[in-house]
Amino acid sequence: MTQGPLFITFEGIDGSGKSTQARLLAERFLAEGREVVLTREPGGSPGAEEIRRLLVEGDADRWSPVTEVLLFTAARRDHLERTIAPALAAGRHVISDRFADSTRVYQGLRGADLRQKVDRLHAEFIGREPDITFIIDMDPAAALARGLARGIAEDRFEGMGLELQQRLREGFLGLAAEFPDRCHVIDGARPPEVVAEEIAAIVGVGANV
Ligand code: ADP
Ligand code: TYD
Question: What span, in angstroms and rounded, lies between the C-alpha atoms of 134 and 175?
Answer without folding.
Answer: 11
